[in-house]
Write a structure and sequence with these properties.
Layout: E1 9-10, H1 21-28, H2 41-53, E2 58-62, H3 65-76, E3 82-86, H4 90-93, H5 98-101, E4 106-110, H6 119-123, E5 136-142, H7 155-168, E6 171-176, H8 179-186, H9 190-194, E7 199-203, E8 214-218, H10 220-232, H11 241-253, H12 258-272, E9 287-291, H13 299-308, E10 311-312, E11 314-317, E12 320-324, H14 331-346
Parallel strand pairs: 1-10, 3-4, 3-5, 5-6, 6-7
Antiparallel strand pairs: 2-8, 7-8, 9-12, 11-12
Helix pairs in contact: 1-11, 2-11, 3-10, 12-14
The structure holds pyridoxal-5'-phosphate.
Length: 347
């Protein structure tokens, strides 16, 4: 879709937001330099602010969440060694085989459970180093969980997983593309999450409203290596302060307001619950998964019919659709989407 008319309600993803006027002003005013020379003061500020937020020594600005995840995976797992993750994890399902194709990393998955992880089950999968099995070097979790309907992994589960990782001598990575949403939903401090992980990836462009940008967070040593890996993949940026300024603005102005997105997602889910397509109590953040198993339309047909009526939704699987609230979705948009979806799903 080349252009979105202003009257269209776009619930496909929280990545569809457009920079606000204030964010654009911050970008226009950004002090910049050549970031490959580490000369961009705005990028440097963003990296040190984000590192501090998560209780880590350093952070590296990247173009995307996928790049941040894949740099972290390459830091933690050497070619031929193994990463454990959920079968529906973004790092496994939506990064186009990058762990294998770029990092030479072998991936083994636990069955899809979304955010409902059991540390014991993951512990039982860890293979110790030693010929001839593939040694497990790292575990990746996703907070919040995208295909898991925006579910939040409880802090207690993450602590149990940290103990498992320590006991087995493996590293723990968090795909924290929407960790802000977990922080707002559960009231857990970002550094309380951050200190549990060896590396995190966090995104400024999913719900926070920045046009571009993610960061890898970790120790100073790891982030120094991350800088080399980013450059090797062609990810060195020059006057990236223009983008970092958007990220700083997003961090300073758009985190607490995520509570509004969560409330709107909940309102949408409650309105659609009587149609048997969603459990509203399970909607904790800004993602509303629709289970269309018993619905009159499958996900692609529903998405097409909604689009004809000016409401865009995502068909994730043949019978699973997803609605996402974000900065550009207000109460009126929720009312519109509810009307359109209710009409179509009643059959
Ligand atoms: C959980 C999760 N991780 C990582 C990413 C990757 O982000 P990007 O599209 O910036 O590569 C996404 C994208 O939506 C995501 O939902």
């Amino acid at each position: 879709m080349a252009e979105r008319a202003d009257h269209v309600v776009d619930l496909r993803s929280d990545t569809v937001t457009r920079p606000t006027a204030q964010m654009r002003a911050a970008m226009a005013d950004a002090e910049v330099g050549d970031d490959v020379f580490r000369d961009d003061p705005t990028v440097n500020r963003l990296e040190s602010e984000v590192a501090a937020l998560f209780g880590h020594e350093a952070a590296l600005f990247t173009q995307s969440g996928s790049m941040a995840n894949q740099i972290a995976i390459q830091l933690l797992v050497q070619p031929g060694d193994e990463l454990l993750a959920g079968a529906d994890a973004h790092v496994v399902t939506y990064e186009l085989g990058a762990a294998a194709a770029i990092g030479g990393v072998s991936t083994r998955t636990w069955p899809s459970v979304g955010a409902n992880l059991e540390a014991d089950q993951i512990a039982a999968m860890i293979r110790p180093p030693g010929f001839p099995s593939v040694p497990t070097r790292a575990i990746a979790v996703e907070q919040t969980h995208n295909l898991g309907g925006g579910g939040v992994i409880p802090l207690a589960t993450l602590r149990a997983l940290r103990e498992v990782a320590d006991g087995a001598g493996v590293a723990l990575h968090c795909d924290g593309a929407r960790i802000w949403h977990a922080h707002v939903a559960d009231g857990v401090a970002l550094d309380a999450y951050g200190r549990l992980f060896d590396t995190l990836s966090v995104c400024l462009s999913k719900g926070l409203g920045a046009p571009v940008g993610s960061l890898v967070v970790g120790s100073a040593d790891r982030i120094a290596r991350a800088r080399v890996l980013r450059k090797r993949m062609g990810g060195g940026m020059r006057q990236a302060g223009i983008l970092a300024a958007a990220g700083l603005h997003a961090l300073h102005h758009h985190v607490d307001r995520l509570a509004e997105d969560h409330a709107r997602a909940r309102r949408l889910a409650e309105a659609l619950e009587p149609l048997g397509v969603v459990d509203a109590d399970a909607v904790r953040t800004n993602l509303v998964p629709l289970d269309l198993t018993k619905a009159p339309l499958d996900a692609p047909a529903l998405a097409a019919a909604c689009a004809e009526r000016g409401v865009l939704i995502a068909a994730m699987l043949p019978r699973i659709a997803r609605l996402v609230t974000h900065l550009d979705v207000d109460d009126q948009a929720i009312t519109r989407a509810t009307q359109v979806l209710t009409t179509l799903l009643r059959g």
